[in-house]
Amino acid sequence: MRRHERAPALIRTFWGGGENLERPRVVLVHPGALSVNSYLELAAALLPQAELIVVDLEQVPEYFQAALSGGHAGITIAELAARIDDALWDRGLLAPPWLLAGWSFGGVVGQELTAALAGDERPEGLFLLDSLAPVPAYTKADPDPAMVLGWFAMYLAAKRGAPVHVPAAELAGVTVEAGLRLVLEAAVANGALRPGTPLPGLRKVFNAYTDGLLRNNRLAAAHSPMPTQVPVCLIRPEHGLLDTPDPLGWTSLAPRFTVRSCPGDHYSMLRHPAAVELIATAAWHCLVGSPPGDLTEPEQGRRFSCTRTSHSG
After folding, report:
1. For the whole model, what pTM was predicted?
2. Residue 276 near residue 42, CB atoms below 8 Å
């Protein structure tokens, strides 16, 4: 991959990290929507044996602006991966030992990065946190409005720190306006939004959220991924984006593939204590082959190995 520019603004560290290049590290690609501080618990769980470094895609102007202008991005997934490659190389962060991870659309960009890196720069493995593969089965159409309304309710709950639950049956077949009223009622009832919050204000937030989804889906639909050569672990929350036994389209792109489950939903998995512990423990296993002293075994009682192969969903 050609090095063409410096991009240090992409890299976010916690508590002055990123300087000890001999310490094992997890580099996580963050696509936005939630604050980078959503990873504070994971960063703390990895320390002191490993550190978390976050790549914030919202620092790429062409990517960020697309979520504010109808979802049309002036950049490709390959170009996003090249920006990340430049930023990591500039900081010396492509040297072993390291693990790459990506949450949501960040996993798609991470997969492209692993496929493009030189052999001696590749990570020990790739962790996908509830990411949909960039394959036709998952990008052929824009998401169903009722499904998006359900995702938006989860997103709003994560942003506001209070539950916003609207049963899927109530959202099925309703207009976006009617669905937003249901979300607003649930948010007010549970303290996520103040009484009197106007529907037009929530609609504005929803439109920006939807444009971000459209941007990511269009980027994925236009992308032609190559299989990755590193072991891949898909971590799926109890209430993820899609309720399907299929491993979200990844088996064709990951010859060495495992699936793990964790508590939470697509957003809350980033801070749910049990989910954070599982991710941190699995990451350490992948990096060095044994758990750190202050992390316990996952509930399943199995040691996660980056070389273990499974195609079960």
Report:
1. 0.90
2. yes
The Cα 220–Cα 227 span in angstroms is: 15
Distance (Å, whole) CA 24 – CA 47: 10
Please write the tens of the pLDDT for every residue from 227-236. Answer: 998 999 999 9
- Residue 28: which residues within 8 A CB-CB, separation 6 or more? 39, 42, 52, 53, 54, 55, 100, 101, 102, 103, 106
Q: CA 152 from chain center: how many Å?
A: 16
Contacts of 84 (CB under 8 A, 6+ apart): 7, 10, 29, 55, 109, 113
The helix (H) or strand (E) run that includes residue 224 is none
What is the rounded CA–CA span in Å between residue 79 and residue 281?
32
d(C-alpha 265, C-alpha 237), whole Å: 5
Query: In this structure, which topology does domain 8-134+224-288 adopt according to CATH?
Result: Rossmann fold (3.40.50)
The domains of the chain are located at 8-134+224-288, 145-218
pLDDT, tens digit (0-9, with 9 covering 90-100), for 95-113: 999 999 999 999 999 999 9
pLDDT of amino acid 44? 95
Q: What value, to the nearest 5°, has the Cα angle with vertex 44 and ends 38 and 47? A: 140
The runs of H, that is alpha helices, within 91-228 are 105-116, 136-139, 145-160, 168-171, 176-189, 199-221
User: 178 and 191 in contact (C-beta within 8 Å)?
Assistant: no
Tokens linked to 219: 């980027």
Structure tokens at 208: 């920006």
In this prediction, residue 18 has a pLDDT band, given cuts at 50, 70 and 90, of low
Q: Which two tokens stand for residue 53?
A: 């470094």
